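Shall we go through a protein fold together, starting from nothing but its sequence? Please make up or recall a protein chain and show it to me in full. Go ahead whenever you are ready, and we will take it from there.
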Amino acid sequence: MAILTNGTSKPSTQLWKNPSPRSTPMWDFLLTVNKKHNLQLNSYEDLHAWSISNIAGFWGEVWQYTGVRASKLYTEVVDESLPMYPRPSFFSGAELNFAENLLFPAHDVDPNSPAVIAATETTRETVSWAELREQVKECQAGMLAIGLKVGDRVAGYVANHTNALVAMLAATSLGGIWTAVSPDTGVHAVLERLRQIGPMLLFTDNAAFYNGRSHPVLPKVAEIAAGLPTLQAVVVFQTVAPVETDLNSIKITSGKAYTYDAYRRLQAPPSTLTFKQLPPDHPVYILYSSGTTGAPKCIVHGAIGTLLQHKKEHLLHCSITPGSRLFYYTTCTWMMWHWLVSGLASGATLVLYDGSPFRTISPSDPSTSIPNDLAMPLLVEEVGITHFGTSAKYLSVLEQKALAPTKILSLKTLKAIYSTGSPLAPSTFSYIYSAFPSTINLGSITGGTDIISLFGAPSPLNPVHIGEIQVSGLGMAIAAWDYTGADITATGEAGDLVCTKPFPCQPVAFWGPTGDAKYRSSYFEAFPEKSVWHHGDFVRFNPKTGGIFMLGRSDGILKPAGVRFGSAEIYNVLLEHFADEVADALCIGRRREEDADETVVLFLKMAEGKECDGKLVERIKAAVRKGLSARHVPGIIEACPEIPITTNGKKVEGAVKQILCGLNVKTSASVANAECLDWYRDWAKTHA
C-alpha cells in the first residue's frame, strides 16, 4: 500500500523569534561543547548534527552539563557499534537512584521554597522541598513495613495530586516500579493493565472531584482489588474529604486495606531518606500502549533514560531552571505526567492540577466550583506559572470560543506554552499569539508513551513557524521514510517517522513472557533489514526550516482530543456485550488536514437479521463509557456492509484510516476483500 502525496507547501509564516537566544542554557551548552571538543558549532542545526553523529560524546556531555547524581560513575556511555535492537545499554557501570535525582536536584534549592503547588477546582496547597522530602520518608516507611522489595510493582489509581507524586517517589527510591491509571478509568480497563504486572501495593483515592461533583471511587477499587491476587495492601487517600472512606468492601487475598493515615503509622520513619543505588536501566515506570492488537502492552522505562532525556528537554530545550514553575494539564496515566514531575530534577516548582480545565473556585462558596472558560489562564496568573503545557484539543476549544486571556490578565510570568496529544492546527498557532503574550515560545511537541519523552521539541534558538514543531530533539536521529525504506526527509514529502540511531529512553523492556517479541514487532519490523525505530507517526519535514508537520498516526492507535487508546479496547466491549448483534467491527480515527481534532468512527457489520438503530448506538456508547471511560466513546457509530481484512485475517485499519483522512491509497494484494474499500471511499466523500 502506498500513500500518494507531494511535498509542496506554502511558505512558512514566522510567529516568534527569541530576542536573546544567547542567554539560554541551550546556547551555553553549545559553547561548552565547542570548548571541550574544539568545535565551531554556531546554530541549533550544527549542534543537532553533532549530537546525532557523536552519540556517546553527546550523551556524556548531557550527563555532565545537567548534573546527574550517581554513587558510582559509568565506565562507558554506549557502544556505538551496536544496533538499535536489541536495545544497547547506556552508562554501563553507573549506580544511581531516580527519586534522589528529583528530590535533590543538581543545583541546590532552598528547602523552604515551594517544590509543589497542588491545585484543584476548589483548593490550593503548597509543599516545600523540605516538606516533600519528609512526606516521601513517611511513605517509604509504610512500604518497608509492608515488605516492598526491589523490583516490586506499586500501582496508583490516583488523580494528579501531591500524594500521587509522593507515592511514586517513595516507590522508586526503594527500587520499586511505579505505574498509574486515572480513577476515571473503568474496572475492565484497569485490570487489563494491572493483572499483567502483578502489583503488590495499590494506592487509590477515596473519590474524585470533577466538574463540580464528587465521584466515588471505592466501589471500583473493591472490584479491582478482588481481581489482583498479588496485592498485599491497598492504601486509600482521603482525597475528597466529604466522601466517606469505608474500607470494609475492599477484600484482599493476603493483606488488608489501610487509610493513608493508618498506613503511615505502620512503622516510624527513619532519620534520613533511603535511596537504593541501582544500575542505570533499573525500571522506574511501567506505562501502557493503547491496545491496538489486544491487551495493552506494558512498556518498561528505566532510570537513566527517563531522567537524562527529561533533564535534557527541560533544561536545554525548554530553559527550565530553579525558579521556573512548570505546569502540564495531565492525568497520572499520560506520559506527560512523568515528564512533568521530572521537572523537580531541574529545580523547578511543579504545579499539579486535578479537575476540569473549565472550572474554578466559587467566590461565594469555596467548597465548590463554578464554570469559567479561563480557569487555566487564571491559574497561570494566580501562581505565576512560567511553562504551561496542555493538549491541542484544549487550545482549539479556547480558539473556537474566541477567548482572549490577555484582555483581562497580564500573564506576565508566562514564558512558554506546550501543546501535544494531537497535531496543533495552523489556525491555533496564530490564535495563541493573538490571545496570549506574543513573547512566549509556543512549543508544539511530539513523542510518546513509547519513549516517555519527545522526538520533536521546542528550541529557544529557533523561530516558531505556523503549523510546525520547531526542531528534532538533540540526540534524536529522526527522519521521514517512505514505505520502501527510502529517506524522504529532504524532499518535504510525507512518510513514516523513524529514528535511526540509539537513544537512552528506548524502553528497557516490555513486561511479560512475550515481551521481547512484542518489543521487536512494535518498533523494528516495519523496516526489519535496517534496524531503525518505526514510531507509527505520519510526518513531513520542512526542508527550509527543519520544522516537522505532524499528520497523525500511521497505525491503528486512536487519539481523540489527544487521549491515546487502541481499537482493541472498543472491540473487547463489543465482544463482551454485543456479540449476538454485531458480527464484526472496525474502529478508526479520522483527522483530515482541515480538522482541529480526531473523530473516532466505529463501523459495525451487523449480525444477520439485526439492525444498527439509535437504541443500539446509545447502548454501545453507554457500555464503552462504563467499561472504559467517557473519552473512549466513538463520535460516529454506523453500519457497514463488510470489514476489510488481510489474507491472514487481520483487519485492515490502516487503509481505511487513510481513506477517511483524505489520502489517496493504493491497495496491496494483502487485502483479501479489497473491493469493499470502495464503500469506505464513498462514505468518506459523503461524510465531509
